[in-house]
Amino acid sequence: MQYQFKSIAQYIASVFLIALTLTSCQKELGLKPNAPTNNTTLPSSATSPTIAVAASSSSGTANSGGTSSDSVYVMHTCEKGHHRDSIAFTALPATVQAYLGTNYTGYSFIKAFAVKDTSGTIKGYVAIVRFNNKPVAMLFKADGTFSKVLEQREKNDLEGEGWHNGGRFDCRDGKSKDTLSLNDLPQSIKAYMTTSYPSDTLVKAFKTKEGTFIVVSKNNGAFVTVFNANGGFEKRVALPAAECELENIPQGALPGAIQSYLSATYPNYVFNKADKLKVNGTIKGYLVIINANNTRYAVAFDADGKFLAAKVIF
Predict the structure, then answer these.
(1) Measured between alpha carbons, how far is 57 from 100 in angstroms, rounded to an integer?
(2) For the chain, where do the domains classified as CATH 3.10.450 start and end?
(3) Which SS3 state, helix, strand or coil, does residue 189 take?
(4) CATH fold of 169-314, please?
(5) How much of the chain, in percent, has pLDDT values that exceed 70?
(6) What is the pTM of this model?
């Protein structure tokens, strides 16, 4: 079991982040002259400079006011004196490029930055990609290892909690608005699961704002099966819980180390589901499914709450 976790952890290598068009993290205005027209800046919040990114590939270009008609804003706080320089994808460390290719299959590149201190020494990297037609912004350390997924907000939510009712990120209200009763799954999806995976037990389902169905099931481990808005099969993902029994637990039952890790690595994430992973009744670890900026992740931990692996679901 421990070997399986370690193998998955190695498979998942470092993560992802952000695109910014500010010359300096301390500046609050101003597009760089060579910034793409679909990436813009907006006055930041009092504590975190932001970068505007088109919310989808069909969002259009930035207007004369320096903002896209449909943008999200990546939150990124630099240390005092640090600044960002725009770089090409090829300038990213090989470990970052490999991480993106492994974890975000089919992604398209949007923007990247090197984060530097006052002497010009690189202290990290920000990378922003589009995955499933949604922007994903990530921060990496100077050696190219993943640090965290950067939070996104809408323009009017730069201050405060970072969401509003009816907004793109209103799932952050903690009311599990995207949770779907298993009984309410389309009959075609139920029939597909019964025919294709007869040994699976369905445990939870979600429906995204775009209409995509996400079905969580267990069968000597955990799986997620994704269907499009018409009920057509998209993909099946084996989660890092192979050969384990799953025991559903509430968010509050997770060890403090796990809750701290998730908050630091996926700022303002939304909790979806958690399970204890057991073998012959002995706890071997934990599996948590979360929603970070409308991208789903499954994150695995050992029995002591130490991070083992993360897997992008959809």
Answers:
(1) 18
(2) 169-314
(3) helix
(4) Nuclear Transport Factor 2; Chain: A, (3.10.450)
(5) 81
(6) 0.80
